[in-house]
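Supplementary Methods S3. Complex input for the 1,3-dihydroxyacetonephosphate-bound model.
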Amino acid sequence: MIFAANFKTNHTRISTMQYIMQLQEMLDTNPVNHQVMIFPPMSALLPSTEAVKVGTQNAWHTQNGAYTGEIGLEQLAEFDIDTILIGHSERRNIIGESQELLAQKFDYFAKNNFLIIYCIGEPIEVRESGEEAVAEYLWDQFDGIDINYNRLIVAYEPIWAIGTGRSATVDEINSTHNELRKRVKAPLLYGGSVNQNNIVDICKVSNVDGVLVGSASLDAKNFYEMMRLVN
Ligand code: 13P
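Predicted complex, serialized as structure tokens:
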């Protein structure tokens, strides 16, 4: 399984260093059979360790240049970072990134051979309109995206399940991932209120190849315990 931790705007550089050391130590002592990635805030980017891959939550599609407040390839290369989240609903909805912009970012980072976790997910009103509406909404979020890119991972994160403590049900995850699997060959992650209580059931769902975890990943021990539960 893939276990990815999205810290969002949490943790500092020092606490991220401690987190990585703690996680690496637990993985050394008692290894798990999972691929582990963390996405700390930009100010806490660090090189990956043997067992913990570090990626960025965002970057601009440039080597360097005049993009105030952004970082590009040059800044990521300093930490050997080649992994990026693109399309998270918080960037789509709070920051206002359009599908067109996301497609440009995707194209740029794919050309630079990044491992891309591309995030999609529907709002509650679409979920309430039924599965067909959800499928249509999600496929639209692939506009301009090369779904056959060989370093792609797709994360399905229903917006109404993010940070709400209300995960999608196993049936909802199952039907949505089966729909995605019709066209997407890449690993499929589920994200949205994943925690120690639901991780086992979620990871049993067919076509779930891993999870993208927010709040429950912020404590290294808690995140590691989740990995142990499905090992
Ligand atoms: P929570 O696990 O806090 O619901 O966040 C999910 C998420 O957005 C991960 O990218």
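The chain has one domain: 2-229. The pocket of 1,3-dihydroxyacetonephosphate is lined by residues 6, 88, 157, 162-163, 191-194, 212-216 (CB under 6 Å).
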